[in-house]
């Protein structure tokens, strides 16, 4: 798959081929269609944040819109081909439990 990768903060982003990962239990694999370059992401890529640098190389970003390609074991309520939004800072207004 094509991915924008950052080898280390302060270096330029590089578009390259990466192995397609398999989704872990409870996760899905997305084909991202749109992603924002948020102000903190830019600072992160430029090496200007004093914290939160994971070991490289990695693909920066936390938000976006994509299509589910593969569903991992234990996932319910989602299916391949479904369009989803990714925003890790949303908080549910109700508690939801997995079906038994």
TrEMBL record:
In this chain the Alcohol dehydrogenase-like N-terminal domain maps to: 25-92
Q: Name one GO molecular function term.
A: oxidoreductase activity
Q: Which domain of life is it from?
A: Bacteria
- Family annotation (InterPro entries): ADH-like_N, GroES-like_sf, Zn-ADH-like_protein
Identify the Pfam families for this entry.
ADH_N
Q: Which PANTHER family match?
A: QUINONE OXIDOREDUCTASE-LIKE PROTEIN 2, SHORT-CHAIN DEHYDROGENASE/REDUCTASE
The protein here is known as Alcohol dehydrogenase
Protein source organism: Paraburkholderia diazotrophica
């Amino acid at each position: 798959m094509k991915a924008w990768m950052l080898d280390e903060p302060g270096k330029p982003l590089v578009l390259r081929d990466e192995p397609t990962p398999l989704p872990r239990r409870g996760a899905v694999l997305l084909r991202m269609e749109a992603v924002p370059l948020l102000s903190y992401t830019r600072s992160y890529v430029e090496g200007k944040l004093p914290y939160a640098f994971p070991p490289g190389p990695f693909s920066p970003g936390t938000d976006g819109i994509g299509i589910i390609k593969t569903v991992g074991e234990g996932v319910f309520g989602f299916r391949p081909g479904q369009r989803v939004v990714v925003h890790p800072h949303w908080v549910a207004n109700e508690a939801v439990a997995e079906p038994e």
